Amino acid sequence: MVTLSRKADVQPRPPRHGLTALLHSRAVHLTAIGWLGINAVVLAVAGDALPFDWSTAATQTPVGHLLDANLALAEVVLLTVLTYWLTRKRTLPNLADRAPERSVAARETLLLLLYGAGGLGLGFILARLAGWHPFGLHLAGSIYGTHEHVSPAESIAWATYNLLVYAVVPLLFFRRRYSAEALNLRSSNRRADSLLIGAILLIESLVQIAVLAPGIFDLTTGQLVLGASLTFTLYLAGAVLPAMIFIYAILVPRFLRLTGSTATTVILGGLTYTALHIWDAWTVFTTPSNAALSVAFLLLTYFAPGMFKTVLTVRTGNAWVHVWAYHALAPHTLIDAPHMVHVFRLK
Question: Is this entry keyworded Transmembrane (predicted)?
């Protein structure tokens, strides 16, 4: 095991973790302006309907979709406040100290981002050659319930590809050089982490049920048991663990080392999480206006959840917290089980 280097090129000031510091950050203010700009782009470009193959596309206006996105952001803000309150008495880890010196962190970050872009490119090519949807962080049909056909073979190949490319290979490479603690894979306070997971999971599940009325409750007992188990397993492999390892175990400490800012780290976590969804099956890049709307709704959909996952990691130093509190069970198992029942024709 190679010890993390402590050679000090000029070290940034230790990041301030308080909620007040986060909300007063210039990066947060610029992000808020950017969010308003995205809303303005949608209003200016969308017209009367969005070009996406969503189950709600025919019944909801672009303004309605924008309202939903902004309400989802409001929920993330409230969950962030709750997270800060629940962790206010904890001794918080300084994740920047878990990353190597800045020059090494910069090189590792750049190479990992290039590797991730290459993974998306290769996933596009291989999937298209097989006649499937490009491999991104979500299986076609996830979340928005697009009506594209997805086969069992595509589902398994998607999960296997993402697990290998974004989780197994990066983990094997970095685990030889850094400890489990340095990669945010070990809890420093299991009781506090469990309390936080329970609170966030309960609230997120109730919100998902109230807002989305997920079809999981329409399944038969047999479909529920098999569908939920299959959904949990495939999405854990294809979406949850890849995001956890690639972003929250490896990149987040390096973002914090390089920026010295918790707010900027949270924002970069949200942007990276969004980028990994670029091949979502509902995106349309056939015209400049459709491409602009696709990018806008990728950000409106994934940027806030990606930021909140980063908040959970920064506040606990444990990348597993977001897995159980805000990813594997809610939304994916809760929302996507009917999709897996349809894909595998479970009866």
Answer: yes
